[in-house]
Specification:
By secondary structure, the chain is of the alpha+beta class. The chain contains 7 helices and 11 strands. Strand 8 and strand 9 form a beta hairpin. InterPro entries: Acyl_CoA_acyltransferase, GNAT_dom, Rv0428c-like_C, YpeA/RimI_acetyltransf.
Length: 256
């Protein structure tokens, strides 16, 4: 296996894991494309993942996808990755008036030489709890309807999970999610309460998650960070993450 192919294979594998680790409520397969639906909660769970080869006319497929999402009262969103099929899909969507949003970096690191965390006031539960969900929704101002949707989405994850909270003097200050599958731990929903930011707590929490992942067979880790989020990118660089590939979304707004 040559180096270029090995890298593409690794990155495509990571892309598949990102889909496994952030589950929608329902999925439809359409000629090599994966259509995900979750009542509009997050773009990742409500978009077309065009990552496998197809045979039908691409223009007809785009129209059909628009009909699928419109019938569910959702905007039509395509996730554009380096593995998109067909390769010209991004240009075709641009020509049809789709707008680019949320350029995002997928970053990777190996788990050798992982330093030990210093902040020890953490709790990891391998099942979703009401307490974790409460703090996540509080930090992110998630409403009740989206909370119910998120509960179902997280319950759909079939890989091993770690729901972590980090506390300061007995008060929960940060939370996050780690998911381990096939030797890789993905980090999701890393969030710190605004009152406790810029204290290095997210770094400590991530170190705990990475050690947990390593104890469950992970040898590498991925995360996703919006390109414009400079503070998060600085943190992840400090933790040893480097850019692997970039993706973005093409969106056509739903008009009732």
């Amino acid at each position: 296996m040559n180096k270029m192919y090995a890298t593409e294979y690794t990155h495509r594998h990571i892309e598949e894991l990102t889909l496994n680790h952030w589950q929608p409520l329902s999925t439809s397969l359409y000629d090599g494309w994966v259509l995900r639906f979750a009542k509009g909660y997050t773009k990742r769970a409500n978009s077309v993942q065009a990552i496998y080869p197809s045979t039908l006319d691409v223009h007809e497929k785009i129209t059909a996808c628009e009909q699928f999402y419109t019938s569910n009262q959702l905007s039509t969103i395509f996730k554009i990755t380096p593995f998109v099929q067909p390769e010209e899909l991004d240009q075709l969507l641009q020509d049809k008036g789709y707008v680019v949003i949320d350029r995002t970096l997928v970053q990777l690191r190996r788990l050798e030489d992982l330093k030990a965390p210093e902040h020890l006031e953490v709790h990891i539960n391998e099942q979703l709890t009401d307490e974790w969900l409460h703090h996540f929704c509080r930090f992110n101002a998630v409403n009740e309807e989206c909370r119910e949707t998120m509960t179902q989405m997280l319950s759909n994850v079939r890989a091993k999970t770690a729901f972590i909270t980090l506390s300061v003097d007995g008060l929960v200050a940060a939370c996050g999610l780690g998911v381990v599958e096939q030797g890789v731990i993905g980090l999701h929903d890393i969030i710190t309460d605004t009152t406790y930011r810029n204290r290095g707590l997210a770094e400590q929490m991530i170190l705990h998650l990475l050690h947990w992942g390593k104890s469950h067979g992970a040898v590498s880790s991925y995360l996703q960070v919006v390109e414009k989020n400079a503070p998060a990118r600085r943190l992840y660089a400090k933790l040893g993450y480097t850019d692997a590939y970039t993706y973005w979304y093409r969106i056509k707004k739903y008009i009732p």
